[in-house]
Design goal:
Largest sheet: 9 strands, mixed
Distance between the termini: 27 Å
Strand order of the largest sheet: 11-10-9-8-12-6-13-16-15
Helix content: 25-40%
Number of strands: 16
Strand content: 15-25%
Shape: elongated
Number of helices: 12
Structural class: alpha/beta
């Protein structure tokens, strides 16, 4: 039965997707005498951790029960007290967890505290791959100190993202675009370039309809602050739009955007363009666990060349545009030889519709766990 309960903890934890950042998704189940006496999953707005919610539901029936959980109970003070202490106080007899906390400063300490109090602790790693994937951004952030960065694009089979003339309509289907919204919902921030803003006037918001722990932070790389204050991103700003520019951007444009509620930050690289690493650094300092990039050909290459991308998520439509003027998924200078090509790893294919699929793959330097 342990396997079944552990699978259920993952299902519970998934209900918190998009609602827990900067915390992980956690599901907890308390079982006593073969009966589930309490369960819960964490959301940041709900404050209480999954273990405490399960204890609240179980009441006195928690004494002598076994806790099944996808992630090690915490042992430190944050917004709440340590869950390990709450479990000990409730008289839990046994804890079966899938994986330890990835934070190197706390990993294993929750288990140690439980064992020291006489609670039996078992680490059952049968579902570890699923458990890590569920909290991929949290694991990545804790192990690297930086957000997980995903480059997303929709493209034709021959790698094109835009035609040279009329670009009305969509490359991929409505089903694929719905899938993109679930991907957006799972991220804390979204980056695009000013070219996309000027050509498409997008909102770049989370349209999944699911609650979030914090607003999706919408970021624009705009060297000269060409983003119009009349565009949707600016007009819809509610302290959730951030523009990175260069130090030579016109001051009057910066003032107009700031007056509209947009946060503007100047960060130059040595080529006089926006420093993309500065974007990642700022997100890390503000504890944003993940960022997705939805941009045009030039910025796609720039983020790849800067080495800030950890994985790609490309949606393919069974179409061919052809032509030398159709824009490739990554333009810019590119690599000069085949030997220099960026080699990815850990490929996963996702079936979207009968005629569409998505490719997920990781950069060689990325920590996938």
């Amino acid at each position: 039965m342990a396997a079944g309960y552990l699978e259920q903890t993952l299902e519970l934890a998934r209900q918190g997707l998009g609602q827990t950042s900067p915390n992980p998704c956690v599901g907890a189940i308390l079982v006593r005498g073969g009966e589930v006496v309490g369960q819960g999953f964490h959301t940041f707005a709900g404050v209480k951790h999954a273990e405490v919610l399960a204890l609240d539901q179980a009441g006195e029936r928690a004494r002598g029960a076994t806790l099944y959980i996808n992630l090690e109970p915490c042992s430190h003070h944050g917004r709440t007290g340590p869950c390990a202490d709450a479990l000990i106080a409730a008289g839990i007899a046994k804890v079966i967890a899938i994986t330890a906390d990835p934070n190197p400063e706390v990993s294993g300490k929750g288990f140690e505290k439980l064992r020291a109090a006489g609670v039996e602790v078992v680490i059952d790693a049968r579902f570890q791959t699923d458990a890590v994937r569920l909290n991929q951004a949290f694991f990545h952030f804790m192990q690297t100190g930086r957000p997980l960065v995903t480059l997303k694009s929709a493209l034709t089979l021959d790698g094109k993202i835009a035609a040279p003339e009329d670009n009305s309509g969509w490359i991929t289907s409505e089903r694929a675009r719905e899938h993109v919204q679930t991907l957006r919902h799972a991220h804390d921030a979204l980056l695009t370039g000013v070219g996309t803003v000027l050509s498409d006037n997008p909102m770049l918001n989370d349209r999944s309809g699911i609650e979030r722990s914090r607003p999706l932070l919408r970021i624009i790389a705009d060297s000269m602050l060409r983003t119009p204050v009349t565009h949707k991103l600016v007009q819809s700003c509610r302290n959730d739009v951030l523009i990175f520019c260069t130090s030579v951007a016109p001051k009057h444009r910066r003032q107009a955007l700031e007056d509209a509620g947009v946060e503007v930050i100047a960060a130059d690289n040595d080529q006089g363009r926006v420093n993309l690493n500065a974007i990642v650094g700022l997100l890390a300092r503000r504890r944003y666990l993940s960022m997705m990039i939805e941009a045009g050909s030039k910025l796609n290459w720039a983020v790849l060349d800067a080495g800030i991308v950890d994985r790609i998520f490309f949606y393919y439509a069974i179409k061919i545009l052809g032509g030398l003027q159709s824009l490739p998924v990554a333009g810019g200078s590119g690599k000069r030889t085949r030997m220099e090509a960026i080699h990815l790893k850990d490929l996963t294919l996702h079936r979207i519709t009968g005629d569409e699929f998505a490719v997920e793959a990781w950069m060689p330097q990325a920590q996938k766990n």
